[in-house]
Structures are given as structure tokens and as C-alpha cells.
Amino acid sequence: xxxxxxxxxxxxxxxxxxxxxxxxxxxxxxxxxxxxxxxxxxxxxxxxxxxxxxxxxxxxxxxxxxxxxxxxxxxxxxxxxxxxxxxxxxxxxxxxxxxxxxxxxxxxxxxxxxxxxxxxxxxxxxxxxxxxxxxxxxxxxxxxxxxxxxxxxxxxxxxxxxxxxxxxxxxxxxxxxxxxxxxxxxxxxxxxxxxxxxxxxxxxxxxxxxxxxxxxxxxxxxxxxxxxxxxxxxxxxxxxxxxxxxxxxxxxxxxxxxxxxxxxxxxxxxxxxxxxxxxxxxxxxxxxxxxxxxxx
Amino acid sequence: xxxxxxxxxxxxxxxxxxxxxxxxxxxxxxxxxxxxxxxxxxxxxxxxxxxxxxxxxxxxxxxxxxxxxxxxxxxxxxxxxxxxxxxxxxxxxxxxxxxxxxxxxxxxxxxxxxxxxxxxxxxxxxxxxxxxxxxxxxxxxxxxxxxxxxxxxxxxxxxxxxxxxxxxxxxxxxxxxxxxxxxxxxxxxxxxxxxxxxxxxxxxxxxxxxxxxxxxxxxxxxxxxxxxxxxxxxxxxxxxxxxxxxxxxxxxxxxxxxxxxxxxxxxxxxxxxxxxxxxxxxxxxxxxxxxxxxxx
Amino acid sequence: xxxxxxxxxxxxxxxxxxxxxxxxxxxxxxxxxxxxxxxxxxxxxxxxxxxxxxxxxxxxxxxxxxxxxxxxxxxxxxxxxxxxxxxxxxxxxxxxxxxxxxxxxxxxxxxxxxxxxxxxxxxxxxxxxxxxxxxxxxxxxxxxxxxxxxxxxxxxxxxxxxxxxxxxxxxxxxxxxxxxxxxxxxxxxxxxxxxxxxxxxxxxxxxxxxxxxxxxxxxxxxxxxxxxxxxxxxxxxxxxxxxxxxxxxxxxxxxxxxxxxxxxxxxxxxxxxxxxxxxxxxxxxxxxxxxxxxxx
Amino acid sequence: xxxxxxxxxxxxxxxxxxxxxxxxxxxxxxxxxxxxxxxxxxxxxxxxxxxxxxxxxxxxxxxxxxxxxxxxxxxxxxxxxxxxxxxxxxxxxxxxxxxxxxxxxxxxxxxxxxxxxxxxxxxxxxxxxxxxxxxxxxxxxxxxxxxxxxxxxxxxxxxxxxxxxxxxxxxxxxxxxxxxxxxxxxxxxxxxxxxxxxxxxxxxxxxxxxxxxxxxxxxxxxxxxxxxxxxxxxxxxxxxxxxxxxxxxxxxxxxxxxxxxxxxxxxxxxxxxxxxxxxxxxxxxxxxxxxxxxxx
Lengths: 296, 296, 296, 296
Description:
The structure is a homotetramer.
Chain A lengths: L2 E5 L5 H10 L3 E5 L3 H9 L3 E2 L12 E4 L4 H8 L14 E4 L5 H13 L3 E4 L2 E2 L1 H7 L2 E6 L2 H11 L3 E8 L3 H29 L4 H9 L6 H5 L22 H17 L5 H15 L11 H4 L4
Parallel strand pairs in A: 1-2, 1-4, 2-3, 4-5, 5-6, 8-9
Antiparallel strand pairs in A: 7-8
């Protein structure tokens, strides 16, 4: 079992840290929220008095933070953990951030003799709680192997995408594609409805044809086609529009940097912005179906 | 076994008629091409001296024609088969045409006491030859059951989409969605490549994640990720850009008629037009990947 | 002065016919609405007992109808005016319809010795009332000259776009471009606002720079930048979203027929459909600005 | 007359500095290129031995650099000009960079008692040479007035867009809109051509109608409609695709930061990327017309 420092106990980080404790690791946690710290403390975590205790004497330090600037600030700079992390310890950053920042942090830590992988997750709060998250990891083969053992206590599928930063790239490629699948499936279903088809019948046909995709299989955006999905629950729960818009923002920024043409992903990004403009940011991302449906 | 008239012996119609003969039906064929007629004759077809012989005394008449105007002209009007088809015989139109024409033809035939289903196919020349086509059928439940028996001799999956015209609608919804999957998968893969990822690794990750879709599974547009797909064969074979552009044209016209918003499908349609402008109309539709790749 | 039959006395046709009467022409009118007929009668029009009286003994027949099917039905077929129009009389169809129907009607009339121009208008109800409409005319040079004299009594700018049907084509090209200018100007202004700029200042800068366009000059979509435009009047009046969506539908159908790539126009068309879905069909088309603005 | 330091003597910066010398200012220049320095030296510039001489004892320092990182590096940091610029001197950065960097540099300089405006230009090499550039300026009213006097020696139109950074924002809003006008005008013209219209006639009609915009007036993308524009010269000269793609990249990044929806601008950005993929980066940006034209 490992000695692990865990930074960031939000909706995702909290249950992830809990699963590490459950797996028998010795976990030291840090967060700005007293409530979050208390919750983890009751589950058996050591509460760090200072963020540096998540680095000092730890085998592994894991972070789950909102944006690239937080990750940079936690690890680098004068007061950063780079000054406290033991040589050869491993940092696993599970935040979803831009690949450029992931590479920069990885490179500076590496120069200081510290190992680093970026390991953004998917699977949502339910996945974090049930320990069924997917991790997409960027880093060397050795660091990946070392991270994999720990990540397996929090998730089910653990992919090695390539070198440092590759985890972030693969995740935004996947999520950009997901947004395209969701938008495309929504408009195809609504066009069928507008022309007299039953969306259940059309969904079934496309699922067995070349229109098959993850959203048709598991996350149909049209209400009452599938049970137990957000569209059948008034678009509550699931993966929020605001979070999809954030990931699409990261994707589009990466595309600008690499001069990649991403017309479909850009269009999806803008439709999610239109939804935010209409106050739909807190609904599940399958609510894009409502843009296409004829209301009233 | 049935007495079947078959009109239209092109790349698709020819092998479809051949499979009906092979299944033991008594098939009378018509086409403007002598070569096509000879081929089918050698396989055992009766060659109609006149198109009306594909209707007179037949149980079933099947047509496989390029566009709505041909279907209209064959069945309706002064010299149309409507004047020759026996009462209660069944017309199966396998052409991919606009739903409005399918409905109009079905409605006039029905008024004359003749049964009708629209049954557009997918699966390409290989599916036609091997008898593994997919048929998406629109018509009454009774007519569907009657058609299903015959279609089973030419295909594997036979779906009942709804009333007359619904086959055409479901097919264009599916193919519009397919074009979106193909375009979206292509740009996601290329963005990964532009940011240092291996397309095989990225494909594998997305296939096991929420980016999963039919094109990633069976028709990866990036060369050399999957064997035996058009992208690994210089984009030869498969489903041509010109045919996808035709289907997208039908989809967009339907969307205009039903005032449906189809932003992703419209964008895909326009990208396929851009490819036609560049002389890529004869390549497989997965060649949209080349729009995104950085050449030279 | 000419003897003119006028068919279709709606919001546009009514004031157009009134201007012909005012100019001294002898005008015979037909419509299905008794109210519309009475209004024109009081202004001096002869009321036709039957639509054929708008053709018999007239020099010129003008029509202003909602869609291609109405135009086809009025002129062609067994009971159509083609059987009543004097040889060498001139038909001016001012309806905005698809170019294919305009060409078909023109061609059949021409074969019967009757002259035809398509002359769709822009300028709205205000232009119709004030006699300041723009006409975009398709037809032979001779027919154009003959039409121009009459059109000058209802409008200010009269363009000769080319052969029969060219008036319709030029109008939808212009209106498609207009929708692009409106959408593009709206999103550019809102992006400026989102980044701290004053929309009046930004409008002024772009108006004097390479962003200059008709909407910035005369029809700014951002409230309170220009006085006396719909955006400064809660998006009331002007050119309705539903009408723009109709014109964009005609444009996109034409693009499908000619296999033209129109990615920007297609996107604009779909955004106007999104607005219709949200119940904004009756607002001025500059209300597309509201899609981009951050409400609440 | 002022003492001016000028940094960056490329295609734009060189002739701009020359115009300042011509106007009688005492200009000290710096660049990494010996050739550029020699050219300016022969025109009367002092050649700085070290970049700091462009700051020390100067009234005004002007920079014209490729990207935000160069601007940041020149002014800030340990070896930056912030250590050499006299109190109350004025920095005018004419580079086109992201607004965030402009604000950051302005803010740090301001804290050190140095005045700053961002003043990106448009008008191209011809405008730089002829002293007819347009400057869009962000900064305080006082700093704007002070900058205006100097900028008037290099340009004709000088706009005050708002506070620091506003010059950059207004420029990318304008250029994003310009790209939309160019793409939209191109596809509208080609659709007219595809439907039988003469592009000169269609251009003339739209120019007098609601499709009017800067590109139709001065920069028609269809060959041989206007003389002396890049489209009539094989798309040589003018404003390169690569530069438009760069500006659109800045626009889209700003839109991501401000969560602005920019569907039309995003689509234009991606079409310019497609052109770069096809090796058209060095052609004039009106070459987007070629994407739509039917070749061969």
C-alpha cells in the first residue's frame, strides 16, 4: 500500500480519495473546504495542515483541480510543491486542463527529478463514487505502469495515450467527438420525428445501422426512448452543459494552437455556448436535443 | 415462390435480381442496357420485351432506379405501370428517393388498389452481391410482412420504419448521421495526430469511450488503422462521395420541407460538396479525412 | 396607360396594386379575400368576378403569391390562365418562389406565345406602400424593358438579372448573403461586448473598416445603436424570421439542385430554424442577435 | 518632433518606421535582421546597438512584433524594457496579439509609471508604405491623444476603441467579420454562377441591395469582376490566408475565454484552416472563392 497525498476534494476528488482509503492506502488530503476535509477525515484520511504535507514523505501525490492555472500554482513557483516532493515520487494530475500546461508542469517536475503523468478522467460523479472511472494517461511507459496500480483503485478503464500531455489531448479529442455524436444524433432523431417517425423505431434502426454510436446506445437524447438516462429525467443529472462547454473550449484552443481544422467540433462548441446563453448551462448535455425540437 | 418483375439492373439492381433468381423466384427483368439484360438472362431471368411485362401477371414488382423522377415516370402517368399492375399486387421500390415522391406514388397506387412499400437499401454492391443488404421499409404492417419474405432473399436486416415514405425518411436520417460520424471522427483523429498522438492508440481509446461510433468500429477514415477498409486502400471502393452527397441532398431537402434544424448534417453536406469541387467525387466517403490532414 | 390584371392582394400585393391605380393604370384585381377586394375597389380597381378576368383582354398580368405551387396552379393546367391570356401579353410574377418553377411556368407560357418575367421584390410592406420596392427581374431583354415601365410605378430599383428564373436566383443569393451579414455582424458585436467594448464604438469602427456591410449601415442588430430600426424597437416590424427562413429554404434547395457548397448560408438557415423552434418566428430577422447575447 | 524607439522592422514595421523618419522624428531602430537595419539606417534612422536603446531617453517606444510572447518578452521580465523606459514615456504596441497579453503588459508598465496603448493596424504592406494604415487603439483618453499625433504620421484612420486591450478586441472582431463577409460573398456568387448568372451582374445587384458589403465593393473574390484586386491577379498580393488564419485563431481564442458564441466566425476559421491544409496559405484570403468554384 502507498502513501498518497490528495489535493482537491470536490464532487469528483472527494469520492476518488475515499476509494483510495477504502483500498487500504494511507491518504493525506488537502482542500480549502473544511466540510470536505471533515468528510474525508471521518473516512480515515489524515488532514494536511498545509498543502506541502501532501508532498513531503509521500510516494504519490494526486491532484484534482478546476483549471490549468490551479495546477501550475500548486506545483510550480516559489511556494509550489516542486520544493517539497521527494525525488522519484510520482505526481498524478487528474484535472482536465490544457495539454500545454500539463506538459509545462511535467517538464519542470521532471527536471527536478520528480515523475509526472497527466490522467484526466471521465465517468462523472457516479463513476468516481463507484470506482468505475476511465483514466486517460499521458507519460512515460514506466510512470504509466506505476500510476496504473493506483488508478485501478479508483477506476475501471485505464488507457495509456502517449507521452506527457497525451492524456489531456486524447480526452478532449474524445469529448469533442462525443459532443458531435450528441448533436448529430439529436438532429437526426428530430428530423425523423418532424417527418412522422417514431423516435424509438428510428433509434432502433440507426443503432443497428451505420448511424450507431455511443449516444444512441447508452444516452439517447430524445425523452422516453431509453429509461434511466437524463433525457428521460427532464435532462437532470449526467454531464452538465457547462462542463461540456469547458471541455470544448479546451479542444478548440488546442485546435487553434495546432492549426487543426475542426469544423464539426467548433459548431458543437458554439451550440453549447448558445445553450449557456439561454440559461441551460446546468442541464445535462443531451439537452441539446431541445434546440432542435419544436416547442409549444 | 413468387412471380416478380424487376426494373433497373445497375450495380445494385443486377445482383439483387440475381439473388431472387437464385432463391427460386420466377423473375422478369427490364433495363435500358442490353448488356445488363443479357447478364441476367444467362442467370435464368425472363427478359421483358416491354416494361409493362414487369407488371402484367406479376405478384410483385420491384424497382431500383436513380431518382424520384424515374420512379414517378415508371409507375404513374399515361404509360405508367399503374395501368398494368394487377389489383392487390405489391410494388417494392428499393430506390433511394425523396419521401414526398415515395408517398405520392404509394398514394396513387393505393387508390388504384395496388399495394406499395418504399424499401431503400444500404450495404453497397458487396451487400447486393452477397445478399446481405439492409432494407428500411415504409408501408402498412401487412404490406411490410409480405415484402419481408421477398426482401429476405436479398438482404439480412429488414426494418419496418413506419407508414409509406418512412423507409426513405429513416434512411436519410441514418445516412445524414453517418456523414456526421465520419466527419467528426476524421477531425478528432487528425487533431490527435496534430498534437502528437498515434491514431491507432487514439482510435482504440475512443472506441472504448464515449466517442465510440460505427466509423471507428468498422470504417476508420485514417489510413492504416484498420485493414481492409477504403482508407487503407487509397480511399478506393466503398461508398462514393458522390453518393453520400446525393443522400445528403435528399436529407437537406427534407429538412427544408419540414423546417427541421440540421446544422451538423448541413455542414457535412457542404463539406462533401467541397470534396466534389476538388474532384474527389469518385473516392470513398471516408476520404473526408484528407480535408483535415496536413498534406505536403 | 396599361390594362393590368393583378392577382394576390396580401400585405405586399395590396399596396402594390394600389400604386398601379394611383399611376393611372386600369387595374382588375383578384383575391380570395373579400376584404382585400373591397379595399382595392374603393381605390378604383375593377373587381374580377373570376380569376380569368385578370387575363382576358389585359395587356399585363401581375401575380403576388405565397409559393411556387400557387403560381403553377394559377397559370398552368386545365383551368389555368394560360388558356385566357392574350397572345403577346406579358405576365409579371412578383412572387418569391423557386427558380425551377419560374422557369417551368415561363417556358410553358412562352410556348403558348405569352411573354413572362419573374420579378421577385424586396423592400417589405413599407416599400410596397411607398412605391420604393426593389425588383430583380429574369427574362429576355425585350420583356424586361416592357416590364420595367410598369414596375417603375411600384418600385425604385429595377435590376435585370438574366434570363427567365434569374430574378429568383439573384434574389435568393442576395438574401442568403444578407442572412450571413446579419448573423456575422451580430456575433462580432456580441463578442466585442463580451470583451468590454461599447457596441456603438465597435459598430462605428467596423463601419469605417473592412467589416462594413449593409446591416451595420442601416439595420444594426444590437439594440440602441441605431434609432428607428427593429432592434431598437424590441425586434418588432421589419422582415420576419419566418420570411427569412422561407427564403433561406429556397436558397438551400437551389444549392442542393446545383450541387453548390454554401456552408455559411446553410449555417444561417439552421440558426433561423433554431429561432423558429424557440417561438421567435414573428420577430424581425435581426433578432438573431439575441441568440448570441448573454441573457439574465 | 519626438524621439522614438522602434522595434521590429519587418514587412510592416520597416515602412512604418520610414514614414516616421520622413515626418521628421528622431527614430532609433532595432531588429534581428542586419538587412532591415541597414535599410532604415540609410533612410536616417539611428541603429540601436542594444534593444534597450529603443527605450532609454525616448519619448515614445513603438513595437511591431509577430506574437504575444514576443511582446511580453520585449517589455517585461528581468531583461525587459520595463527596466529602461523613462517614467511617463509612452509605449505604442502595433502588433496584432491577444488582448489578454496586451492587458497584462499594459498593466505592468502602468504600475511602473509607463503609459501604454495597444494599436494594431490594418491596411497591409501598401498601407504601411503609403502611410494610409488604420490604427485601432486601446488605452486611456489621454494616452490615446498622445499616440494619435504620432500614429497620424503612419496612417489615415485612427480609432479609439476603449481601454487597454480594446484595440486588439476591436481588430479581431472586425477581421472575424471580414472573413465572414468574404466567405459568404464567395459562396453567394458561386451559387449564382452555378445557376446561370453572370457574376458581374449579380455583384452589381447585390451591391445595390441588402447584400452590400466591403468585399463586394472593393475586393470581389470572383476573378475579373473588379480590376486590380487579388482575385483578378491569380489571388496574389493582398492579405494572405495564413495571416487571416492567425487573426481568426486570436478571435476564436478570445471567444473561448469570454464564452462567446461565434458560429459563423468559427466556420470561417475552419475553412481557412482547410485552405492551409491544401497548401493555399500564401495566397490572398479571397482565394476562399476557389473552395466553392467547380474546377476541372
